[in-house]
């Protein structure tokens, strides 16, 4: 009797004329599933609980027929296709009550170890199933989820399995509809349960360490070879195998320790220093003797314990100062201590004067009991003239075992301060304090010294400039040039064969007319030149010398003018002797003198081919 739909037929006859336009409906095909009201055309279900899972679609043939007329009941037909809509009216059902699974004990956590399936005849979302493990035996080790494509229950591992611990597990799984239709609650529970039995398969497993991490302690400077601990691993399989240990070498840190391959004991291989490395972290590997490929690894942490081996020392500074006008009991410096050892919590340092300094009335040490101490004065004022530096020996002890102590010397410098205690001078002024000079006097003295140095430098510079000007003037004097050329003769043979002093003193001529050490050559006469009007003394001297050499048969084969330049043996100018010259002045070529440099410039000008004038020769 459930309403399905309503059909309606129309008749073109006149409804006022008899029953020609009156329509009656009936079902020709579709019974006994559906029925139709003859007057209204309403179609309804004719059977209860029609099941879509049995038949989904139906074709119903409907006839509409009028009630009269001359032709006697005309009829028309139409086909109605009816599809049943699915509702969640069927619970899921397991095809069997017990599922058996076999799982290796080496299965990884989170991996799928098996599948089970419940069947729901509904369609679409009405057939979606949710699986749950009933609390009990397997709730902590296993989990189950639904495969959204196949609607299967996927069983996964939540914790590792161990055949040696437990060989089998049994638990129940419940399958229920995910989307319930409240209209069908009265039909019954829409869920089903099944039993799952899991058998754990024994596998050849690696050794298992007794701890996940091993932590050991050892004192620094422990002798090499000392055993500091051990690791333990066992083969838990049925056929137990022996285990071998070795270190997982990764870096040089691992070389500080060794492990016994059979016993698993760990020993030191080198001396340890906590100040260098306070903790070591490395890995130990255990393998089965029967199957060395099966290995397991564990971390080992070794803490190096501190041994009190270094004494405490004063932290910087090691030097301080005190004012000359300091009062007794005044704190001039607060000191602290440092220890090269890694000090434990609550480490305490104590400060005191050494025994030899305790009796001196200069300074004292006040221990504040908080790892600091103050240096206090014990005198009313200090004098730099009497003593500039004080050396205060301080003894510092630590509270570790064994107790370590050291004596540290604090240097105290006496300084001049103002009335507020501000230091004014500690170093430079100390040199002048005995003579009572002030800062202003020191500055004035330094300025005077600088001025004197500037004057001396200027005086030396002027003297050098004056000397340079004098030398330049002397080079321009022709008389100096003659003497200068005479002093710089050609070579040793020229200076030994002829006394050049004759040029400097004309009076010597009379005593040295004849040279007996050289054989005279044939006399060659040269043309006499009239004397020049300028420089009469030099002119007369040169003319006289020329005349004497021209008529003297015992004269050497070169005249004295050869010494005016670098001529003679060993000289590029060779000999300038007039004896070897040609008989006429016109036959001689003096152009080569201009190639001898600035020293022969005057001679080149005098005897040049174009500028030569015998009347100007002096």
TrEMBL record:
Instruction: Return the InterPro entries for the record.
Output: Cadherin, Cadherin-like_dom, Cadherin-like_sf, Cadherin_CS, Cadherin_Y-type_LIR, Catenin-bd_sf
Keywords on this record? Calcium, Cell adhesion, Cell membrane, Cleavage on pair of basic residues, Glycoprotein, Membrane, Metal-binding, Repeat, Signal, Transmembrane, Transmembrane helix
Q: Which GO terms describe its molecular function?
A: beta-catenin binding; cadherin binding; calcium ion binding
One Pfam family named in its UniProt record: CADH_Y-type_LIR
The coiled-coil regions, if any, are none
Location(s) in or outside the cell: Cell membrane
Note the topology in the membrane: Single-pass type I membrane protein
**Domain Cadherin: start-end pairs:** 1-94, 95-209, 210-314, 314-432
Which GO BP terms apply? adherens junction organization; calcium-dependent cell-cell adhesion via plasma membrane cell adhesion molecules; cell migration; cell morphogenesis; cell-cell adhesion mediated by cadherin; cell-cell junction assembly; homophilic cell adhesion via plasma membrane adhesion molecules
The transmembrane segments are: 431-462
What would be one Gene Ontology cellular-component term for the protein? Answer: adherens junction
Q: Which domain of life is it from?
A: Eukaryota
SUPFAM superfamilies documented for this protein: Cadherin-like (SSF49313)
Role played: Cadherins are calcium-dependent cell adhesion proteins. They preferentially interact with themselves in a homophilic manner in connecting cells; cadherins may thus contribute to the sorting of heterogeneous cell types.
Indicate what this protein is called per its UniProt record. CAD12 protein
Question: What organism is recorded for this protein?
Answer: Setophaga kirtlandii
Q: What are the leading ranks of the lineage? A: Eukaryota, Metazoa, Chordata, Craniata, Vertebrata
């Amino acid at each position: 009797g459930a309403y399905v739909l309503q059909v309606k037929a129309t008749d073109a006859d006149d409804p006022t004329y008899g029953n020609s336009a009156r329509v009656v409906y009936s079902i020709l095909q579709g019974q006994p599933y559906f029925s139709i009201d003859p007057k209204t055309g309403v179609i309804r279900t004719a059977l209860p609980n029609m099941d879509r899972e049995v038949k989904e679609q139906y074709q119903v043939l409907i006839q509409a027929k009028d009630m009269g007329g001359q032709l006697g009941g005309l009829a028309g037909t139409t086909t109605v296709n009816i599809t049943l809509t699915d509702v969640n009216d069927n619970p899921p059902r397991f095809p069997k009550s017990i599922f058996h699974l076999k799982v290796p004990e080496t299965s990884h956590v989170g991996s799928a170890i098996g599948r089970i399936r419940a069947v729901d005849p509904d369609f679409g979302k009405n057939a979606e199933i949710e699986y749950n493990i009933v609390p009990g035996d397997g709730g902590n080790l296993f989990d189950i989820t639904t495969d959204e494509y196949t609607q299967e229950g996927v069983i996964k591992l939540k914790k590792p399995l161990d055949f040696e611990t437990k060989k089998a597990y049994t638990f129940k799984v419940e399958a229920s509809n995910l989307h319930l239709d409240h209209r069908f609650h009265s039909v019954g529970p829409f869920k089903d349960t099944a039993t799952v039995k899991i058998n754990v398969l024994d596998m050849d497993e690696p050794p298992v360490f007794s701890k996940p991490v091993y932590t050991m302690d050892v004192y620094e400077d422990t002798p090499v070879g000392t055993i500091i601990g051990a690791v333990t691993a066992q083969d838990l399989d049925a056929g137990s195998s022996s285990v071998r240990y070795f270190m997982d070498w990764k870096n040089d840190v691992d070389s500080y320790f060794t492990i016994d391959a059979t016993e698993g004991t760990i020993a030191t291989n080198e001396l340890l220093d906590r100040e260098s490395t306070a903790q070591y972290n490395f890995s130990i590997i255990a393998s089965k003797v029967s199957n060395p490929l099966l290995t397991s690894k564990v971390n080992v942490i070794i803490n190096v314990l501190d041994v009190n081996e270094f004494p405490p020392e004063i932290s910087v500074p090691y030097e301080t100062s005190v004012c000359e006008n300091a009062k007794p009991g005044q704190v001039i410096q607060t000191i602290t201590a440092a220890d090269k050892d890694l000090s434990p919590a609550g480490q305490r340092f104590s400060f005191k004067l050494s025994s030899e300094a305790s009796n001196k009335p200069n300074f004292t040490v006040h221990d504040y009991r908080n790892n600091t101490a103050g240096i206090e004065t014990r005198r009313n004022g200090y004098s730099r003239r009497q003593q500039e530096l004080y050396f205060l020996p301080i003894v510092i002890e630590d509270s570790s075992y064994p107790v370590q102590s050291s004596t540290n010397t604090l240097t105290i410098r006496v300084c001049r301060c103002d009335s507020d205690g501000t230091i004014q001078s500690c170093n430079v002024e100390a040199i002048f304090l005995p003579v009572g000079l002030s800062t202003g006097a020191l500055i004035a003295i330094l300025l005077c010294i600088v001025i004197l140095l500037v004057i001396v430098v200027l005086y030396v510079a002027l003297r050098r400039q004056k000397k340079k000007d004098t030398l330049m003037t002397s080079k321009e004097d022709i008389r100096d040039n003659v003497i200068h050329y005479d002093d710089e003769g050609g070579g040793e043979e020229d200076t030994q064969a002829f006394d050049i002093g004759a040029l400097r003193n004309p009076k010597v001529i009379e005593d040295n007319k004849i040279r007996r050490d050289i054989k005279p050559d044939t006399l060659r006469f040269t043309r006499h030149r009239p004397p020049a009007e300028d420089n009469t003394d030099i002119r007369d001297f040169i003319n006289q010398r020329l005349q004497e050499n021209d008529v003297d048969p015992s004269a050497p084969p070169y005249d004295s003018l050869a010494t005016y330049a670098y001529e003679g043996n060993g000289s590029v100018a060779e000999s300038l002797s007039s004896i070897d010259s040609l008989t006429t002045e016109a036959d001689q070529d003096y152009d080569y003198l201009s190639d001898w440099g600035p020293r022969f410039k005057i001679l080149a000008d005098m005897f040049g081919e174009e500028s030569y004038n015998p009347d100007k020769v002096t």
